[in-house]
Write a structure and sequence with these properties.
This protein has helices spanning about 1-5, 20-30, 60-65, 70-85, 105-120, 130-135, 160-170, 220-230, 300-310, 365-380, 415-425, 440-450, 455-465, 465-470, 470-490, 495-510, and strands at about 10-15, 35-40, 55, 90-100, 125-130, 150-155, 175-180, 180-190, 190-200, 205-215, 235-250, 255-260, 270-275, 275-280, 325-330, 345-350, 355-360, 430-435, 435-440. It has about 525 residues and is α+β, with helices and mostly antiparallel strands. It folds into 3 domains: about 1-50 and about 160-235 and about 340-395, FAD/NAD(P)-binding domain (3-Layer(bba) Sandwich), CATH 3.50.50; about 90-155 and about 240-330, D-Amino Acid Oxidase, subunit A, domain 2 (D-Amino Acid Oxidase, Chain A, domain 2); about 405-510, Alpha-glycerophosphate oxidase, cap domain (Helicase, Ruva Protein, domain 3). The strands form 3 sheets. Strands 3, 4, 5, 6, 11, 12, 13, 14 and 15 form a 9-stranded mixed β-sheet that branches. Strands 1, 2, 7, 8, 9, 10, 16 and 17 form an 8-stranded mixed β-sheet that branches. The longest helix is centred in the C-terminal third of the chain and has 19 residues, at about 470-490. Bound molecules: flavin-adenine dinucleotide (FAD). Flavin-adenine dinucleotide binds near residues 40, 52 and 182.
Length: about 525
Amino acid sequence: MARLRAGSEVFDLLVVGGGASGLGAAVDAAARGHRVALIEQGDFAQGTSSRSTKLVHGGVRYLGQGNLSLVTSALRERGRLLRNAPHLAHAMPFVIPSYSWWEKPYYAFGMTLYDGLAGRLSLGASQRLSRAETIRHLPTIETDGLRGGVLYYDGQFDDARLAINLAQTAVEGGAVLVNYCACVGLVKERGVVGGVLVRDGETGAEFAVRARAVINATGVFVDALRCFDEPKTAPMVTVSQGVHLVLPREFLPGSSALMIPKTADGRVLFAIPWHGRLVVGTTDTPNVAATIAPRALPEEVAFILDHARKYLTRDPGEGDVLSVFAGLRPLVKRGRAGDTARLSRDHTIAISPSRLITLTGGKWTTYRKMAEDVVDQAERVAGLGHTPSTTAERAIHGAGGTGGTAGSLQMYGSDAVAIAELAGRDPALAGPVHPACALGRAEVVWHARQEMARTVEDVLARRTRTLVLDARASIEAAPVVARLLADELGRDDAWVAAQVRGYRELARGWLLPAPAETARAAALPLVA
Ligand SMILES: Cc1cc2nc3c(=O)[nH]c(=O)nc-3n(C[C@H](O)[C@H](O)[C@H](O)COP(=O)(O)OP(=O)(O)OC[C@H]3O[C@@H](n4cnc5c(N)ncnc54)[C@H](O)[C@@H]3O)c2cc1C
């Protein structure tokens, strides 16, 4: 903050938005030796980047659309991410069950093509499965009419943890990153963007930060920033919502994920083991409002539960749902706005006449390539001269082994040892925050000291995935987390009470039954 507020420094690049796109750009630019700053209005990955299906994938769906170059490029990035962040990303078997004579040969052909496009970065050869083998992989699959299946491999990761580790990687590369600081305007000199106006969300202070180039990586909010640049500019993205339900693992035991390639309305649906739970989703609801805290629509919840009941022998009800989360896709307008499943999932870089650089679209899997492309453009805009990207081979913070530490600390990778030592040194930090969840007290202290956690939500939703895995348990844990954070950040009792109250309110929105207020009812124009 001190460096940003000093006002004396002109950064080479300033990135607005701390999701996958912005963090990737900060990592890439810092690794090239540029002077980089990044501001995030809330917490890192608080938007779409913590609400994904957690797949590192080429996109089987795009294969069906014949978009082979998009799939090939994503498969290359999949391989790189699994190599550069092995503590957060790994291969996982997926099984497509077949209920009619044509499905097995059809999907077997498609998945063989998928393997082929991955080349030497393939995670394993796809296989045709007999009926018995399919049941062995998916013990609770509906057996009525089941003929067999097709197994293939894809990647899985922890999206918010990767975002935090990318933030750390960027800082280690020399970048200046702050959360809870919003861009509230652009600084222009002779019609050219030369910085941004920043509002510190904790103090309300406003100040300008100057930069040779500004990258707008604000996800579904890119048009709001483009309007700071050019008030009458036409919207570039349309927003579609995707919802996931989190269920106990008993609904699909075993280590394979279930992939339904075509739901009743032609979408792809997954049921995926993740951190000891089952994540089921997603939906694709077009034309919703761009908002910080999207909520699942009742019909989206019903759609997912109906399909889970159709394909699983044990029928989940609303009472089984541990949490429900919604994420928003920024889809670049190229087709009909009402048909977002067919809009481009590829990324787009736009440079305005006043040289604001906007990066949007794409997916988590391709964040690195998106970053490489946008920094190439930003170098040109800023007149920096070209330095090649080095991120394809660069390890992400935490890669490098857990030093024998096991259990929930594994997701911290090479930081696990230091967290275990913290717990070992101070008996007050030795236990969990609450019997209902595995989160250790030492972890919370680590989040405050090393991972820029500022609120209870930062800890429970993104530094750990407690909210996603069990919203009720996270509500129980909130008071202890608030107290531990207050001790670290020098906050008083009133702050603790406000944090716990605010967190409970937020977490209730992740529980079923879904509140009456729906995303559609709240649909507002993207830009006021
Ligand atoms: C339901 C769903 C499932 C998905 N599943 C997958 C998947 O399995 N695999 C995959 O590869 N991809 C997946 N994706 C796509 C992927 O999640 C997104 O492409 C990616 O997270 C987008 O990142 P982003 O940084 O562009 O946007 P965001 O993550 O939304 O980040 C933008 C950030 O900008 C900040 N911001 C906005 N305005 C301002 C401002 N004025 N000042 C400062 N900061 C600001 C926001 O707070 C936000 O944190 C999924 C997407 C959805 C919606």
